[in-house]
Give the backbone structure.
Amino acid sequence: MLKVILFSITALSISVYAQEHKAHVHGAAQVSMGFDGSKGKIEFKAPAETVFGFEHEARSKKDREAKDKGLQALNDNISEMIAFDKELACEIKMEASQVNQEKDHADVEVEYAVTCQKPVAGSTITFNFKKGLSRIKKVKVEVIADEVQKSLEVKKNGESLELK
């Protein structure tokens, strides 16, 4: 019994540590989405390398331009990368974005507000992340829409999640 308790405590400690020190994986991203009826939020997180090709601080003109181009591509293509059913008539608007620089690593975090004409629960969302971010390999997607909770690891364009 003691072994079970020690194992449980160790597993919990590892889980807490992993949450505090999130894994930094190039080519990966995480998208969290929450909806209350027809309104919601999207949070996108990824290593900077996945979004604009490098992680060091953008000091040169070339690096600043690459950073701006990557962030612009993300924002310009978000409605294609996260495609709601057309009959919902959803509009996605960026609310905030930041690049968190920590030594040799940087992460991009972007928050979007979503407003639809109809509730999102009961619909299907299609993901096309490679249309806007060519370096992306996989995206962990988590969605809560009213009473529905779903998750999916997206590895290719066209994968969808039914919120039923």
In short: The chain has one domain: 25-162. Residues 1-21 have pLDDT under 50 and may be disordered. The first strand starts at residue 28 and ends at 36.
